[in-house]
Amino acid sequence: MKHLLSTADLAKDEAIELLDTAAQMAATQSREIKKLPTLRGRTVVNLFFEDSTRTRISFETAAKRLSADVINFSAKGSSVSKGESLKDTALTLHAMGADAVVVRHWASGAPYQLAHAGWLDAAVLNAGDGTHMHPTQALLDAYTIRRHLGGHGGGLRRGGDDGVGADLVGVKVAIVGDVLHSRVARANVWLLRTLGAEVTLVAPPTLLPIGVEAWPCRTSYDLDATLADWQPDAVMMLRVQRERMSGGAGAFFPSPLEYTRYFGLDARRLAVLPAHSIVMHPGPMNRGLEISAEAADSDRAVIVEQVANGVAVRMAALYLLLSGSTTPATEGTAL
């Protein structure tokens, strides 16, 4: 694996290797000294053309805990704001000797272009491109599901501690909300199906993309029926991305109140779920719109844990792309 651009490109053994390596990385984070010397001397550039808090900080933390040098590049206040092209920015990073470029871009396909246009001699990690893909978010979601649902799903019963070595066969995941604008939903559908999970997308017709019937999942317009009849093991709520809605949110649903009434997760719907079910959200949350405070703060919610797991998953991705090894040196190597 030279780049990490899309979950659709990941084979099942590659995905499991990433998750297992993340479990090893997570084990090192409980130590007093968390840093590993694995990527000492390597340079990781965070190239962000869109605003981000969780993803940028998570990648920065991951790289620093592997002892890499980190350069944070924001389009705002850079030459990009003066009209510099993606190519010229890439050539500049190449001249500076970047070993890995973590890129978030408003245009779908930008990370792929960086990886294959010949402008860079570096590993490219997609940190979210337009409405297309967000592979490390899907990986941290799968990692979180695997840790929590070890007693559910045929594949998980074959795994060891924290589900190491296991797939997600038999696990049912409902992804609810603004699928149309969600790179998280797309990335999760392909990864979860690769790992053997069953996925149902729940959204109003206006927030499902054209061609969704070709995706490897079910679709539903009825959240209550999905929760009561299908009994999902995990419910992933998606943020309503009003900033991507041309014509405003009113072009996609009549009112926030009506959206919440039909597609919001609240205490009443939470009570319908099986006892082992978990509640997820990629963040940031619109509390009171797609998820209530009661649901977001409930014992079932693993939303804060997803953020923590993101560091381990991104450590694993950087490690596998840059170290050339499949056996992390995690014992006795702290700085």
UniProtKB/TrEMBL annotation:
<keyword id="KW-0808">Transferase</keyword>
<dbReference type="Pfam" id="PF02729">
    <property type="entry name" value="OTCace_N"/>
</dbReference>
<dbReference type="GO" id="GO:0044205">
    <property type="term" value="P:'de novo' UMP biosynthetic process"/>
</dbReference>
<feature type="binding site">
    <location>
        <position position="283"/>
    </location>
    <ligand>
        <name>carbamoyl phosphate</name>
    </ligand>
</feature>
<feature type="domain" description="Aspartate/ornithine carbamoyltransferase Asp/Orn-binding">
    <location>
        <begin position="170"/>
        <end position="321"/>
    </location>
</feature>
<dbReference type="InterPro" id="IPR006131">
    <property type="entry name" value="Asp_carbamoyltransf_Asp/Orn-bd"/>
</dbReference>
<dbReference type="InterPro" id="IPR002082">
    <property type="entry name" value="Asp_carbamoyltransf"/>
</dbReference>
<feature type="binding site">
    <location>
        <position position="54"/>
    </location>
    <ligand>
        <name>carbamoyl phosphate</name>
    </ligand>
</feature>
<dbReference type="InterPro" id="IPR006130">
    <property type="entry name" value="Asp/Orn_carbamoylTrfase"/>
</dbReference>
<feature type="binding site">
    <location>
        <position position="239"/>
    </location>
    <ligand>
        <name>L-aspartate</name>
    </ligand>
</feature>
<dbReference type="GO" id="GO:0004070">
    <property type="term" value="F:aspartate carbamoyltransferase activity"/>
</dbReference>
<dbReference type="GO" id="GO:0016597">
    <property type="term" value="F:amino acid binding"/>
</dbReference>
<feature type="binding site">
    <location>
        <position position="284"/>
    </location>
    <ligand>
        <name>carbamoyl phosphate</name>
    </ligand>
</feature>
<feature type="binding site">
    <location>
        <position position="137"/>
    </location>
    <ligand>
        <name>carbamoyl phosphate</name>
    </ligand>
</feature>
<dbReference type="InterPro" id="IPR036901">
    <property type="entry name" value="Asp/Orn_carbamoylTrfase_sf"/>
</dbReference>
<comment type="subunit">
    <text>Heterododecamer (2C3:3R2) of six catalytic PyrB chains organized as two trimers (C3), and six regulatory PyrI chains organized as three dimers (R2).</text>
</comment>
<feature type="domain" description="Aspartate/ornithine carbamoyltransferase carbamoyl-P binding">
    <location>
        <begin position="2"/>
        <end position="146"/>
    </location>
</feature>
<dbReference type="GO" id="GO:0006207">
    <property type="term" value="P:'de novo' pyrimidine nucleobase biosynthetic process"/>
</dbReference>
<feature type="binding site">
    <location>
        <position position="82"/>
    </location>
    <ligand>
        <name>L-aspartate</name>
    </ligand>
</feature>
<feature type="binding site">
    <location>
        <position position="104"/>
    </location>
    <ligand>
        <name>carbamoyl phosphate</name>
    </ligand>
</feature>
<feature type="binding site">
    <location>
        <position position="134"/>
    </location>
    <ligand>
        <name>carbamoyl phosphate</name>
    </ligand>
</feature>
<keyword id="KW-0665">Pyrimidine biosynthesis</keyword>
<dbReference type="InterPro" id="IPR006132">
    <property type="entry name" value="Asp/Orn_carbamoyltranf_P-bd"/>
</dbReference>
<comment type="pathway">
    <text>Pyrimidine metabolism; UMP biosynthesis via de novo pathway; (S)-dihydroorotate from bicarbonate: step 2/3.</text>
</comment>
<feature type="binding site">
    <location>
        <position position="55"/>
    </location>
    <ligand>
        <name>carbamoyl phosphate</name>
    </ligand>
</feature>
<comment type="function">
    <text>Catalyzes the condensation of carbamoyl phosphate and aspartate to form carbamoyl aspartate and inorganic phosphate, the committed step in the de novo pyrimidine nucleotide biosynthesis pathway.</text>
</comment>
<dbReference type="GO" id="GO:0005829">
    <property type="term" value="C:cytosol"/>
</dbReference>
<protein>
    <recommendedName>
        <fullName>Aspartate carbamoyltransferase</fullName>
        <ecNumber>2.1.3.2</ecNumber>
    </recommendedName>
</protein>
<comment type="similarity">
    <text>Belongs to the aspartate/ornithine carbamoyltransferase superfamily. ATCase family.</text>
</comment>
<dbReference type="Pfam" id="PF00185">
    <property type="entry name" value="OTCace"/>
</dbReference>
<feature type="binding site">
    <location>
        <position position="183"/>
    </location>
    <ligand>
        <name>L-aspartate</name>
    </ligand>
</feature>
<dbReference type="GO" id="GO:0006520">
    <property type="term" value="P:amino acid metabolic process"/>
</dbReference>
